[in-house]
Amino acid sequence: MVSYAALHDLAARIANTLRAHDVANGPALTALFAYRSVTAFAGVLGILLRGHGYVPLNRTFPVERSRQMLQRSECSALVVDEISTAQLDALLKDVVRPLLVLLPEHQDVDPLAARWPLHQFLGAKEMASGETFEPIPGAPDAIAYLLFTSGSTGSPKGVMVAQRNVRAYVDFVVPRYGITESDRCSQTFDLTFDLSAHDMFVAWETGACVCCPTQKQIFKPDRFINDSGLTIWFSVPSTAVFMRRMGLLKPAAYPQLRLSLFCGEALPMQTVIDWAAAAPNSVVENIYGPTELTIACTAYRWDAERSPAQCEQGVVPIGEPFEGMEVLIADENLREVPVGHDGELLMTGPQLTLGYWEDEEKTRRAFVVPPGESRIFYRTGDRVRRTHDDAPIVYLGRMDNQVKILGHRVELGEIEAGIREASGVEGVVALGWPMTSSGADGVEAFVQTDALDTKSVLDAVKTKLPPYMVPRSLRLLPRFPLNANGKFDRRALQQILETTV
């Protein structure tokens, strides 16, 4: 247990040390190589108090990727926690820009300094005091954090999230959910996943307690919820799907939860039904938002009587935009489609971020001014629909999750929904396979389960879908591979096909 006073003291020491050893050239950014530690959270706060934006790195990522993020951000300083020092030598390899490296948990930095004379290393003994400290206020357009996300070219995209973006998010979320200092909030996300910003900034705004799971608790979320006395839960839907599959969503299992939030991927309807029963005193919301729109920007509140009829393809709607955010459902020419038609979701408002770090071309393609508009909108790449004027927005899949199978345009989410309904299993991923120059010759599907009558499921799917959409086979996996953000890793599943088909 760490008090806010202790957290602030370490953050102030980090901020004062960064200020005392300031490097004039380069952007106002400091990298953070830390994982689920006091240094990780104090590092975020200290970097911000210094007046810099933080650039999170992740020790679970390939070190080459972390090095690429460090070099592309042109940071002049790096804060490292104890557990991440094991990879520090590998991270610094080929880094030619001199760095100030802070190791708040390290007592002896001489061996590192001897190995890496280009860089300056400061351990706990060398760090400045935090007793006299004056925070440097950040300008509204200053970068609060620079977050690198996957890019279609294989090179990560750096999303620049401004101070004003975070302020707008916090100002909406805190009163909406009535978060106070008496709340105990989960912290299930790595710092390289933008949803982690919710956990930190909302808690720091209100004085709520942030509960970070141990490595063991990550794989036993039921124990984590109850042992930590959580009142607020926030995770990707995959975690809830896993808990349902493991029989951890028994009725009234988590009576102390008052708020449950899910974000990051499509939320299956049956999972929400079971979660609501397991947490009978909890409001359950599906919130949605890409990194480029600051954490989340739409919300849908689950209602046991009304909501099932509003779900599409067995998936919970993403709801309505946050206050100040505006929606445009557009065709390929960025013109608004009539109500009831599918289109790409575009959004604008105070949470619209600054664009991509040092990549004007990607920024220009994704941050656009639609015909008849004077404002910039972000193209989410998500296919959505509003069935009628009073209906919530429903998520139908990625625009790029459509594949051409034998000449037919197919939405893989529709296939997944059919398998989900026929099997009763929530964890389903469909992939176009094998791929050809003109699309895909067929479909293969994975189901997250130990045992299943695959013939019966496929027979049921055949009654719902045309032949070209029926998977050639169903592959059973006890547990799907997950990416760094805890979502189903579609690329890893495709690699399984590449090595076995």
Describe, in short, the structure shown.
With 501 residues, the protein is α/β, with parallel strands linked by helices.
Overview of this structure, please?
- The protein is an alpha/beta fold and 501 residues long.
- It folds into three domains: 4-138, Rossmann fold (3-Layer(aba) Sandwich); 163-396, 3-Layer(aba) Sandwich (Rossmann fold), CATH 3.40.50; 406-500, GMP Synthetase, Chain A, domain 3.
- It contains 15 helices and 26 strands.
- Strands 2-1-3-4-5 form a five-stranded parallel beta sheet, sandwiched between helices. A five-stranded mixed beta sheet has the order 10-11-12-13-14, covered by helices on one side. Strands 15, 16, 17, 18 and 19 form a five-stranded antiparallel beta sheet that branches.
- The longest helix is centred in the N-terminal third of the chain and has 17 residues, at 4-20.
- The protein is globular.
- The protein starts with a helix and ends with a helix.
- The model has no long low-confidence stretch (mean pLDDT 93).
Strand count: 26
Instruction: Write down the CATH class of the largest domain.
Output: Alpha Beta
Largest sheet: 5 strands, parallel
CATH hierarchy: architecture of the largest domain = 3-Layer(aba) Sandwich
Q: Could you list some keywords that capture this structure?
A:
single chain; 501 residues; alpha/beta; Rossmann fold; GMP Synthetase, Chain A, domain 3; 3 domains; five-stranded parallel sheet; 26 strands; 30% helix; 23% strand; globular
